[in-house]
Design a protein that fits this description.
It is found in: Cytoplasm. The protein contains five helices and nine strands. By secondary structure, it is α+β, with helices and mostly antiparallel strands.
Length: about 190
Amino acid sequence: MRYQISGRQIDVGEALSTHVETELDATFEKYAQRPTDSTVIFSRDAHNLICDAVVHLSTGLTVQAKGRDPDNIYAAFENCREKMDKQLRRYKRRLKDHHKERSEPVEYAAAASYVLAADEDEWEAQDDAGLQPIIVAEMETRVPTLSVGDAVMQMELAGAPMLVFRNEKHGGVNVVHRREDGNVGWIDPRNLS
């Protein structure tokens, strides 16, 4: 596995890097056994030390977690690693089933980037009225081709509030999202007609 271990305004020494590599190897050997690369970033937020980790699996799934501790950077990493461990333990059976059913990794399609801006006349009229809407939606992402169940699993593994994906059954773009009541919502525009 390739590692990228860095710090934002924190010096990450050789001992911490070695500890991170050893612990992540042990964690993923238990469950996934096929991580491709990982990014671990240590930072400070007010009174807490923070560890953000993202690990990409060869199946195309991504595991993401964040840990924090007020005093110890190693404890922040351990909190993060424990969250990843819990996610992987929770989805161990589904990850194994996913690997057996799928002979090739998850396919990704490129999604376009957009910057939405108001018309100049409209902008000036809104500015005169005291309204200054700034709408900027600029984002590049990869859209995976997954089943609905795999999309929910990917969303939860990444700790994301929503996931846009291409449905394996019909190739249409779908969205799964975490609802305010804690349940998962699924939007399939194809079913709206």
